[in-house]
Amino acid sequence: MIAAIPTCSCILARVETFGSAWPGKESTMKTLNPMQKLALFLVSMIVLCVCSSGMSEAAEIALGKIDLRVLYAKSVRIQAIFQELEKARLDSMAQVQRLASEYEVVENRLKAEKDKLKPEERQKLEHELKAKQDDLRAEQEAARVKVSLKRKSAENTIMMEAKEVVAKIAKQEGLKVIIAEGSLIYAEGIPDITDKVMKALDAQFSADKKKGAPAAGQPSEGSKR
Predict the structure, then answer these.
(1) Residues ≥6 apart with Cβ < 8 Å to 176
(2) Does pTM surpass 0.85?
(3) From CA 208, how far away is CA 212, in angstroms rounded?
């Protein structure tokens, strides 16, 4: 579809503010889970503008759209990255839970035997409890940092790979601007390239697996270029 729309710079300005202009944004962000936050991040980042230089105001350009909800739900590649991220989170939580259980055992023993213990025995248990508490807090912080880095890596990986695929398909289809459907109010007649992007991402993922490329969550060879 050819449509008269503002210039590339105007479109990008709107993309930068996407997701920041609805009521209750602050409270909404606090209630999103990691996957929802990642999806919101990508909605704002993946809107790709491939414009010719020197385009005048209200120039006529070819539009395309992509449905990120479908892409996240059905893409094998993206699901593999999500699963790797969730595995890292669960592994970190398991270690934290193990240390929390050890802390609880010592704490309960100290409470139950406090009046029966000799001063030196009680002091020994108190020192052990303090050490367990320090280990637990250190592990909680390490887990937070690890999961945060994994999430950032997942965001970057999906963004790099998706942008590369979207740009390639946009050029093949003769499209100049690709818009994320989640940000559209009306889009009748605009070509939807979601399936093509998903198939290209998943095909590259399958090819990388056969070649023994990086595991899910790590950038593919194509995304590093």
Answers:
(1) 49, 50, 51, 52, 61, 62, 63, 170
(2) no
(3) 6
All structural domains of the chain, each given as residue ranges with its CATH number in brackets, are 2-90+155-224 (3.30.910.20)
The whole-number average pLDDT for the span 60-69 is 82
- Separation CA 223–CA 162 (nearest Å): 9
Question: Which residue in 143, 191, 138 sits closest to 3, CA to CA?
Answer: 191
Structure tokens at 181: 């459907």
Q: What is the predicted pLDDT for the residue at 192?
A: 83
Per-position b or e across 189-215, b if 16+ CB within 10 A of its CB: ebbebbebbbebbbebbeebeeeeeee
15-43 per-position pLDDT tens digit: 333 343 333 444 444 555 555 555 555 55
Question: What is the phi/psi pair of residue 13, to 5°?
Answer: -65, -40
